[in-house]
Write a sequence for this structure.
């Protein structure tokens, strides 16, 4: 299995660390005061951390080029066929949540 | 027996070998199988369940019967073991000897040992299952014996990269390699045989007026001369994986009599290919009939291979039987070589091939309905429209047609497609990205068409790769059409065998259907057909046909089971090469490792690191004594520990402080340069991720420490936070765990000693 | 038809033509009291116990392929009750007791073999952790023995004590742990359920779940619509797709786990051996093949096949631990779809939709759980109350913080 790192080119799967779905890019804002009764917990956090679409088909997930340049990659691929459609640098993606 | 003037063996180089302690002589170029056959050793093994006497069936890696132990390695196919001086092979699964096997008594109990019998019994009394029944079943199971000693054989792994991987060096594969090679593409040609050329080495087919094997040798010579082509004989491609990756097993040292210390037995390859052409040929299948498993009953194409390639006649009086045109070549080749052909039997009523004249008796519309001869075939019972009679013979060459060797094309979930005209399954186009299938593997049964297909597939690949094609003359072969009339099973008195290794009969499959194990996957698991070392290569089609018939479905509707890697069994040591002993994972040593070891400190594992547990002094006999002294030293004076294993991350940039405020739960922007603070970072679910001390060297420069175990994890986490969550922060970081040693110095006397200037005194 | 040794002899004498079908092939009715989506180990066990324990037989099990075509059809067959956390500990303990009576209960030889399971440890810290685990097992009423290095050597003399990368400090022996024949478990439960009147419908894929006013009314399938008041989703790795039909997202990510079997060999490994530092586990089946596996491939997948990096890692782990297996040849590799949860523990719970229940999240430990999972899911569907030993397997526990994280690795799905 191989991934094309935008910086390093096609590399063996062994060089990459898999994190999970791109849900991890939608980090909710945390406002302990507003969510005081639940201690800061909210449905947004449940979505972010636990709930997944988990499709048998196309999805986008996050890989880290640990054995190479250290870039985090957003890989669009098909979980049923393992076909890879696109590999993008996470830093190049727009509209991420941060704080 | 040997046939004069036939075979590619080197008669000037005799080789001594032994089988079950008996000495024989063969020649360079022989396999153990061909040499045994030449020496008249027909009995080569015993089947798994019933211990029935078995002989050679094939000449290839699909061999189901001739499994032997040699060099302490069990379950080796005699057909793949190249003869070398001093080869000592033992048959398996028999006691006390191959000829007189006590457990052949199982066969008498066969009616009670049929499909799934063990699920219906052995339940009572409960204690008997583990105490009695299971140990007996386990001892009876398995074919070879694994020695309990460590496997110290030498195995290696390697990578290779190419534009085009050609799997199979028969006519189609050779043409594909030639076209791509001449075009300048980087080509790897892998063939599981030691001698490349595929069926051309086993047939008397002529190509462009030349014997096929010589034509192949000429092509191979040109390929070997091209710097961009790599020939890999003795290399079986075992699996197709994602991203154009193929696993392959090269048998490097098995055929060497006295391998040197640095010659590996096997090398497991990972081949990354932009394109692949699968030209793996086809495997012949038999026809099931009563007692079709006697030694001396062989695949017709194997009889030809033993004759033409190894100069061995598989019998003195050979009967040939088939449902297709191809079988006739066996009779013709044998007769031309002076071997007596007892009869050419064709199940078809009026085949074109029957039109004479022939050098042997011909019977059409004829089926074999039985056989006799316990330790070796003595005769056949044959039936035609006129009636039933006996035919004396000591070898039956049977052909039920060919199964394209399409396994690799189905390793990525797809199933093959049925083709009525060859009565076989062929690959589904596009099943593996980047792979095309040609030749007999694609259901193309005449050699001229195979040659053309191989060339055309290579031209297509070149186009895909953006390379210019080359013009190549297409050779002509002299073999004719392939006609076949499906025949899977002939009814008769006695059991008809499907899976020779697991002893599964036609009756077993019919019983499975009766018990409603109607899915082909259920039938397989219930009867164990197709689960033996040959993985159904010799029985899947017939079993499927029997099941289809028993459940009132057609063959395509019944379907095939899943194809899985590896295509042939691969030693764990090969795929695990490098893992033995310390090779399994890196060893990481602290800066002070050598002095530590010199002081006799017992070393313990902390992940991949080695750390001392304590430093014993002379006179101390227990760890408690040493530890008590060390604790006292730290409490009253000073102690030093090498903590280089802790992760260290150098963090720089105008936003370094803001970044640390984000990843730690406590503030670091308030830390003054020249000072250190303890930091705690949490996982996203609120649990502790890691802790450590972080020092501020300058307004925009920090050095973070992490625990030993979490160093990589924290680095990854920091990269994710920066790249995914806070890309607006201008900060960079790098691991410096191995760039800096780190020592912890603790105790009431620390302040005084640390104010001394740094000196070169040993630690 | 009852199975026994006498029956085998009698049928054998008569040419084996008298064996009856192991289960019927009924056409689906238009309505049932209950529907189980998924005809694998857990689904079939649920149907069986609904019939046996609760007298509910008007049930259909809907399976999109052939019975047992999922993970029950290909796994490393380990059966054990050596969990640490309350919530898990009592569940697997209950399951093991059910295993011990399973053959006679089902009248089917599932070949449950309690040959002993040994978890090796490789440091003082790991020894302490396993000692705690062993004590928890003993407190639960199960069996555990802490072995030192020589104790391990007496059971497993073939390990590479001298050269192995991670030294063997000792092991935790679980004598009642062992293996079973996986297909037989599926077939035994299927036959048992069918005999009690449950309809097993194969080649019937559920394509929709019908819900009205917050309550389930039935399902849509490739063989037509079927009404039911209660529907249980028991689809393992495909749980996400089935739950999506009810508009639900699950805390599940589906991953590929590979496993391997070698050619058949005479008996050489008599235990189940688990190697924590390499994440490698091995046993020998009654047919003689060495059955072994290791880690996930670690990327989400439904392909039921994996890639070489993990294949090689597993083989390398085997070589450092027990190099005698080097000469054994891998005959077949396969892969399944594992439903991974954020804490590595399962879910047996109601959903927010009335009448819709879910049993999933078994990560790659579902085989040993088959009996208790069926038992507890049946209890839940029949009584609307969780069974005592499964009461912590809540769907919302990730939100409330009541995690059952045996490994302590946190909320990333593929770390369990």
């Amino acid at each position: 299995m191989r991934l094309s790192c935008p910086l390093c080119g096609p590399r063996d799967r062994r060089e990459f660390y898999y994190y999970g779905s791109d849900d991890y890019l939608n980090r909710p804002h945390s406002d302990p005061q507003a969510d005081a009764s639940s201690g800061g917990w909210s449905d947004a956090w449940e979505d972010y951390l636990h709930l997944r679409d988990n499709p048998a088909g196309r999805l986008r997930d996050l890989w880290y080029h640990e054995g190479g340049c250290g870039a985090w990659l957003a890989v669009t691929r098909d979980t049923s066929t393992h076909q890879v459609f696109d590999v993008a640098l996470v830093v190049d993606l727009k509209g991420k949540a941060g704080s | 027996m040997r046939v004069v003037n036939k075979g590619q063996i080197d008669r000037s180089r005799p080789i001594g070998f032994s089988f079950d302690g008996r000495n024989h002589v063969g020649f360079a170029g022989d396999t153990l199988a061909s040499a045994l056959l030449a020496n008249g050793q027909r009995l080569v093994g015993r089947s798994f369940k019933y211990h029935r006497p078995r002989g050679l069936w094939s000449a290839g890696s699909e061999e189901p019967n001739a499994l032997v132990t040699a060099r302490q390695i069990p379950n080796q196919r005699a057909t793949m073991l190249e003869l070398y001086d001093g080869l000592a092979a033992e048959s398996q699964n028999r006691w006390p000897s191959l000829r007189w096997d006590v457990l052949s008594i199982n066969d008498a109990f066969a009616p009670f040992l049929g499909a799934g019998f063990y699920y219906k019994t052995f339940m009572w009394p409960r204690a008997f299952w583990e105490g009695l029944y299971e140990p007996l079943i386990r001892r009876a199971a398995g074919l070879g014996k694994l020695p309990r000693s460590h496997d110290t054989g030498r195995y290696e792994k390697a990578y290779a990269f190419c534009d085009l991987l050609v799997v199979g060096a028969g006519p189609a594969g050779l043409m594909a390699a030639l076209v791509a090679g001449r075009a300048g593409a980087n080509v790897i040609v892998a063939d599981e045989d030691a001698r490349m050329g595929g069926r051309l080495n086993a047939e008397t087919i002529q190509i462009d007026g030349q014997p096929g094997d010589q034509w192949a040798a000429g092509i191979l010579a040109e390929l070997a001369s091209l710097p961009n082509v790599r020939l890999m004989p003795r290399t079986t491609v075992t699996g197709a994986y994602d991203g154009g990756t193929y696993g392959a097993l090269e048998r490097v040292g098995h055929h060497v009599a006295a391998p040197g210390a640095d010659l590996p037995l096997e090398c497991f390859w990972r081949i990354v290919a932009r394109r692949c052409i699968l030209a793996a040929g086809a495997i012949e299948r038999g026809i099931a009939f009563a007692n079709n498993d006697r030694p001396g009953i062989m695949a017709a194409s194997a009889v030809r291979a033993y004759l033409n390639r190894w100069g061995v006649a598989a019998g003195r009086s050979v009967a040939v039987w088939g449902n297709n045109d191809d079988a006739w070549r066996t009779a013709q080749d044998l007769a031309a070589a002076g071997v007596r052909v007892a009869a050419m039997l064709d199940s078809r009523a009026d085949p074109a091939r029957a039109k004479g004249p022939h050098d042997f008796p011909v019977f059409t519309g004829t089926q074999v309905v039985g056989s006799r001869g316990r330790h070796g075939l003595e005769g056949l019972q044959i039936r035609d429209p006129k009636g039933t009679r006996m035919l004396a013979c000591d070898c039956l060459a049977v052909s039920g047609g060919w199964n394209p060797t399409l396994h690799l094309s189905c390793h990525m979930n797809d199933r093959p497609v049925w083709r009525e005209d060859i009565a076989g399954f062929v690959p589904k186009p596009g099943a593996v990205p980047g792979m095309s299938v040609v030749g007999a593997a694609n259901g193309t049964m005449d050699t001229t068409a195979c040659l053309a297909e191989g060339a055309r597939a290579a031209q297509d690949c070149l186009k895909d790769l953006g390379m210019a094609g080359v013009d190549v003359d297409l050779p002509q072969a002299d073999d004719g059409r392939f006609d076949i009339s499906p025949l899977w099973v002939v009814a008769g008195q006695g059991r008809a065998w499907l899976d020779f290794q697991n002893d599964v009969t036609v009756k077993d499959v019919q019983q499975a259907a009766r018990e409603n194990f109607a899915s082909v996957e259920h039938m397989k698991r219930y009867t164990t057909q197709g689960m033996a070392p040959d993985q159904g290569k010799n029985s899947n089609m017939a079993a499927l046909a029997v099941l289809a018939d028993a459940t009132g479905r057609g063959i395509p509707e019944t379907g095939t089971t899943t194809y899985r890697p590896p295509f042939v069994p691969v030693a764990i040591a090969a795929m695990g090469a490098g893992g033995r002993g310390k090779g399994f994972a890196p060893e990481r040593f602290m800066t002070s490792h050598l002095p530590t070891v010199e002081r006799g400190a017992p070393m313990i594992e902390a992940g991949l690191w080695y750390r001392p547990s304590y430093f014993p002094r002379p006179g101390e006999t227990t760890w408690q004594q040493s530890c008590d002294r060390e604790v006292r030293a730290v409490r009253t004076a000073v102690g030093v520990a090498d903590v280089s294993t802790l992760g260290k991350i150098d963090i720089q940039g105008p936003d370094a402080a803001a970044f640390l405020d984000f990843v730690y739960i406590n503030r670091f922007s308030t830390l003054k340069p020249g000072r250190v603070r303890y930091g705690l970072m949490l996982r996203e679910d609120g649990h502790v991720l890691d802790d450590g001390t972080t020092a501020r060297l300058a307004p925009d420069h920090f050095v973070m420490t992490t625990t030993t175990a979490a160093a990589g994890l924290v680095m990854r986490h920091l990269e994710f936070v920066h790249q995914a969550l806070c890309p607006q922060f201008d900060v960079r970081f790098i691991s410096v765990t191995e760039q800096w040693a780190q020592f912890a110095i603790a105790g009431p006397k620390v302040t005084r000693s640390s104010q001394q200037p740094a000196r070169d005194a040993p630690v | 038809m009852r199975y026994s040794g006498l029956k085998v002899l009698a049928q054998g004498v008569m040419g084996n033509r008298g064996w009856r079908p192991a289960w019927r092939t009924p056409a689906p009715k238009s309505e049932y009291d209950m529907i189980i989506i998924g005809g694998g180990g857990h689904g079939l066990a649920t149907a069986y116990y609904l019939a046996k324990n609760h007298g509910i037989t008007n049930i259909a099990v809907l399976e999109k392929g052939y019975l047992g075509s999922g993970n029950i059809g290909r796994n490393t067959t380990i059966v054990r009750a050596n969990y640490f956390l309350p919530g898990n500990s009592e569940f697997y303990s209950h399951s093991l007791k059910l295993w011990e009576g399973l053959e006679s209960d089902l009248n089917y030889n599932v070949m449950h073999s309690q040959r002993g399971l040994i978890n090796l440890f490789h440091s003082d810290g790991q020894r302490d952790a396993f000692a705690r685990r062993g004590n928890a097992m003993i407190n639960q009423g199960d069996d555990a023995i802490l072995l030192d290095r020589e104790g391990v050597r007496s059971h497993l003399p073939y390990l590479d004590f001298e050269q192995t990368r991670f030294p063997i400090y000792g092991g935790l022996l679980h004598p009642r742990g062992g293996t079973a024949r996986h297909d037989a478990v599926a077939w035994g439960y299927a036959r048992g359920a069918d005999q009690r009147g449950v309809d097993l419908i194969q080649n019937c894929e559920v394509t929709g779940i019908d819900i009205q006013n917050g309550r389930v009314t039935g399902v849509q399938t490739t063989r037509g619509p079927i009404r039911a008041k209660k529907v249980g989703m028991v689809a393992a790795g495909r749980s996400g797709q089935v739950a999506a039909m009810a508009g639900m997202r699950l805390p599940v990510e589906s991953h590929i786990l590979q496993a391997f079997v070698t050619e058949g060999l005479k008996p050489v490994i008599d235990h189940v051996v688990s190697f924590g530092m390499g994440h490698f586990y091995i046993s020998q089946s009654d047919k003689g093949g060495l059955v072994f596996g290791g880690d996930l491939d670690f990327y989400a997948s439904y392909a039921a096949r994996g890639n070489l990096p993990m294949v090689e890692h597993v083989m390398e782990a085997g070589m450092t631990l027990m190099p005698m297996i080097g000469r054994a040849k891998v005959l077949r590799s396969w892969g399944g779809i594992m439903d991974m949860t954020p804490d590595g523990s399962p879910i047996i719970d109601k959903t927010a939709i009335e009448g819709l229940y879910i049993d999933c999240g078994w990560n790659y430990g579902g085989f040993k759980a088959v009996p208790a999972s069926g038992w507890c899911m049946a209890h839940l569907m029949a009584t609307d109350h969780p069974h005592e030993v499964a009461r912590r397997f809540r769907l919302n526990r990730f939100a409330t913080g009541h995690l059952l994280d045996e490994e302590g690795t946190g909320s990333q799905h593929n770390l369990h």
DSSP finds eleven helices and 18 strands in chain C. The first helix of chain C runs from residue 5 to 13.
